[in-house]
Amino acid sequence: MNSIARYIDHTLLKPEATKEAIKKLCEEAVKFGFACVCVNPMHVPNAFHFLKESKQVKICTVVGFPLGANLARVKAFEAQQAILQGADEIDMVINQSLIKDQDWTSLENDIKEVKFACGDKILKVILETAHLNEEEIKMAAKIASQAGANYVKTSTGFGRGGASFEAVQLMKASIGEEVKIKASGGVRDLTTAKKYIELGVSRIGTSSGVALVQGQTSNSSY
């Protein structure tokens, strides 16, 4: 079961999360060997402090979260500041309005601006697939791939739905071979996690990481 751990972005994005809760998150990530912790931007310095002795666990944060409706330059500034404070990976929320308007040029530029700010750091683009139809999912994933995303990600966990097997399959069919997939939102048990991995997912964003590696089912909402 420990092989599952390397897929997990151990996540705590609750707005009321305390410094002590972030410390616990980081300690669990080290103990179980998770790929990274995913925290809100204000907690990046805390995570950096708690993980300073770790050579394995990375720090991920979110930008434009959870709606994706920020200006591109604001998202880029968020990403830049987070990296300066110790973030290794950036999960940005895509601009869903641009998807609905089919303004693909502006959508690509939105992602490119954040990717430029990330430099050589990993950029994951959150599509919020439950808000999109099949064609929108495929096109958004394609645009993210073209714009330089390292990953496309299903969900924020704060929308009206989370990851689905169908969405992952649509995303996979639309991206380049070098782009990976992160499933997030509602992955609460080991069986579901393994199914996503079988479908080709490289990361799983969940606040239920400890339960997953222990073969348990969590009642967490993310």
TrEMBL record:
Classification via Pfam families: DeoC (PF01791)
Q: What is its subcellular localisation?
A: Cytoplasm
* SMART domains from the UniProt entry: DeoC
Alphabetically ordered keywords of this record: Cytoplasm, Lyase, Schiff base
- InterPro entries documented for this protein: Aldolase_TIM (IPR013785), DeoC (IPR011343), DeoC/FbaB/LacD_aldolase (IPR002915), DeoC_typeI (IPR028581)
Q: Which terms in the Gene Ontology molecular function aspect does this entry carry? A: deoxyribose-phosphate aldolase activity
Output the Gene Ontology cellular-component terms. cytoplasm
Q: What is its EC number?
A: 4.1.2.4
Under which pathway is this protein filed? Carbohydrate degradation; 2-deoxy-D-ribose 1-phosphate degradation; D-glyceraldehyde 3-phosphate and acetaldehyde from 2-deoxy-alpha-D-ribose 1-phosphate: step 2/2
Q: What class of enzyme is it?
A: lyase
The role this protein plays is: Catalyzes a reversible aldol reaction between acetaldehyde and D-glyceraldehyde 3-phosphate to generate 2-deoxy-D-ribose 5-phosphate.
Q: What family name appears in the similarity comment?
A: Belongs to the DeoC/FbaB aldolase family. DeoC type 1 subfamily.
Q: Give the protein's recorded name.
A: Deoxyribose-phosphate aldolase
Q: Which gene encodes it?
A: deoC
